[in-house]
Amino acid sequence: MLAGLMQNVPLTLNLIRERVADLYPNKTVTTRYPHAIHVIGYGEVLDRAGHIANFLQDIGITRGERVATLAWNSHRHLELYMAVPCMGAVLHTINARLLGPDIARLLDHADDRALFVDRSIWKTIGHEIDLPRRVRHVVVMEDEPDQMLDPPARAGTTQAHYEDMIRRHQAAFAWPVLSEDEAASLCYTSGTTGNPKGVLYSHRSTTLHTLACLFADGIAMRERDVCLPAVPMFHANAWGFPYAALMAGANLALPCRQTDPTSLVELIEAAHVTMATAVPTVWIGFLDHLRRDASALGRISSLKRLPVGGAAIGRSFIDDFTRYGIEVMHCWGMTEISPLGLTNVERSDLDDAQVRETRTAQGLPIPGCRLRIVDADGARCVTDGKMPGELQISSPWAAGAYFDRAAEEKGLHPEGSFVVDEGRVWLRTGDIATIDPHGYVRIVDRAKDLIKSGGEWISSQALELQLMNHPDVREAAVVARPDPKWQERPVICVALHEDTKELRERFQQDYGSALSEHFPKWQIPQEVVFLTELPKGKTGKIDKIALRTAMQPAQ
Ligand code: AMP
Questions:
Q1: Is 344 in the pocket of ligand 1 (CB under 6 A)?
Q2: Per-residue pLDDT tens for 210-236?
Q3: Nearest to 494 by CA among 480, 483, 478, 516
Q4: Distances in Å between the alpha carbon of 511 and those of 282, 457, 459, 473, 477?
Q5: Does residue 339's CB lie within 6 angstroms of at least one atom of ligand 1?
Q6: Does residue 180 contact residue 203 with C-beta atoms inside 8 Å?
Q7: In CATH terms, are 14-430 and 450-551 the same topology?
Q8: Which of 93, 253, 272, 485 is the most buried (most CB within 10 A)?
Q9: Angle, to 10 degrees, between the axis of helix 75-86 and the axis of helix 42-58?
């Protein structure tokens, strides 16, 4: 082998930090806190990242150790996005919509050493989180002004205020030279079964993914853009948009937790947002708002592009936004792939009919991603746009294994989520797709037993398990029903021991309170379908496909 002689600059997030310091210290991030709009320059964000790095060093955080956040989209969260990975530690962003006990389990599984938490979250669910002993430091971030609201510190744990911590530490920090293979951040996803699985991004994968967001046939983010990620910063690094904006030098606008149409219009107007991203549920509500309030249109005239992903979108969704002069960019991705994999860009070799046909597809692989569909035996399917198969992906920014310390210690590879074939690792996505001769991928079904409601996963298996504890239930299944607002909502299909009016009423009355002990409210199904018997497949298992089909609206 003859080695190339080019500079071996490691692909780490320090490339972003240095570029921002060199070129974009005056670009800004605008945060819409509930009580005020706050603007800060990128130069100051980096300074404050230095203060945080000094704090983390002082409390003994070393390379590779995990630091958790439980926070909405704000400039402080952005500061942590830079500080934690650039000092060599790992940023673990936790979903703030989970219940306290689930959050505690994630803190424990990740072996987090410190927690940065928004005051609004700490105040509401802090008392439900039984902090693992190894979380020795809690830093409360002031997304609400009143310090009186802070819960008391836990025994064995220090509790500081973020702004005090910043004041007490200096900005100058000797950022270490990192290897590109070091872990940068950690994000848990529902995997294919509902059990949380850690996806451990490396500096290299995040840097490459960031560059891919800037490709013209990717998200095409540019310095002139003002980017509003309305997808939470605990979801796959807000789909990589904050890092992409920093790398591109685009201004950022962050909505905190407010993604209702009125708040978004206000933020788009205040920060002159040009591109915004979120799951379809957010934009469906936004469209309704635009239809009702004509004056809102004038206030969002800067908005030109809408990369939308997380769930499928229909033609009318695209047409409605096009009428308002906003281009919808349909994207597909998953936490395991950082998350961007497909963007729907128009190939020049399509005729008009093909353009129309492919508009609602999830799109073409962005450069750097390779996708294939395979049948049940793992053989490649024909790419004729008709034959469905399991979608698999290989990419430098796709996971090659889950972060599972217990399995790692035992030398195990968790579950069958990965296959090695054709000389590379393929991630099994759990999505069923077709690929047409031009390469457009269309998701047609989901093999994973999960329901996606408003961009958040609901585990049907976990709900079923609890329902089976109900004394009147003989068999139960939870399946998705299409929903105009949330894309999908879970529906309980249940057969009771005795199918009487009395038992049905009793079940209707008490299943909600039984489930609420284990699930947040948004995960609990509102609808129950009573059956005398649930349909079964050849092996005697409940035929969920038949149930799901029965839940589809009549054509
Ligand atoms: P998450 O890991 O939470 O980002 O979820 C990833 C999953 O969401 C994918 O595997 C798909 O099942 C689904 N998904 C993401 N984007 C789309 C899309 N554009 N159309 C249909 N399903 C999507």
A1: no
A2: 999 999 999 999 999 999 999 999 999
A3: 478
A4: 29, 20, 17, 10, 14
A5: yes
A6: yes
A7: no
A8: 253
A9: 60
Q: Is the overall model pTM greater than 0.90, yes or no?
A: yes
Contact (Cβ atoms closer than 8 angstroms) between residue 49 and residue 83? yes
Question: Which one from 122, 239, 457, 486 is the annotated catalytic residue?
Answer: 457
Positive or negative CA dihedral for 170, 171, 173, 179? positive
- Give the list of residues 6+ apart from residue 151 with CB closer than 8 angstroms, or none: 122, 123, 126, 127
Ligand 1 close to Cβ of residue 307 (< 6 A): no
- 520-535 pLDDT tens trace: 999 999 999 999 999 9
Q: How far apart are the CA of 307 and the centre of ligand 1, in A?
A: 13
Contact 480, 491 (CB under 8 A): yes
Q: Which of 27, 448, 452, 544 is catalytic?
A: 452
**Ligand 1 probe mutation, 190, 197, 317, 332, most atoms within 8 A of CB:** 332
Asked about 239 being catalytic, the answer comes back as: no
Between CA 393 and CA 384 the distance in angstroms is 18
Active-site residue, 189 included: yes
The fourth-level CATH superfamily of domain 450-551 is: ANL, C-terminal domain (3.30.300.30)
- Residue with CA closest to ligand 1 atom 9: 334
- The correct answer on CATH 3.40.50.12780 for the domain covering 14-430 is yes
Please give the structure tokens belonging to residue 200: 């451990």
Q: Is the CB of 310 under 6 A from ligand 1?
A: yes
pLDDT in tens, 66-124: 999 999 999 999 999 999 999 999 999 999 999 999 999 999 999 999 999 999 999 99
Listed by start position, the domains of the chain span 14-430, 450-551
Q: Whose CA is nearest to atom 22 of ligand 1?
A: 311
User: How many CB atoms neighbour CB 75 within 10 A?
Assistant: 22
Catalytic residue among 336, 390, 456, 464: 336
Q: In the numeric block, which tokens belong to residue 35?
A: 């009580």
Which structure tokens are listed for 400?
Answer: 């090659």
**Cα of 3 from ligand 1 centre, angstroms:** 40
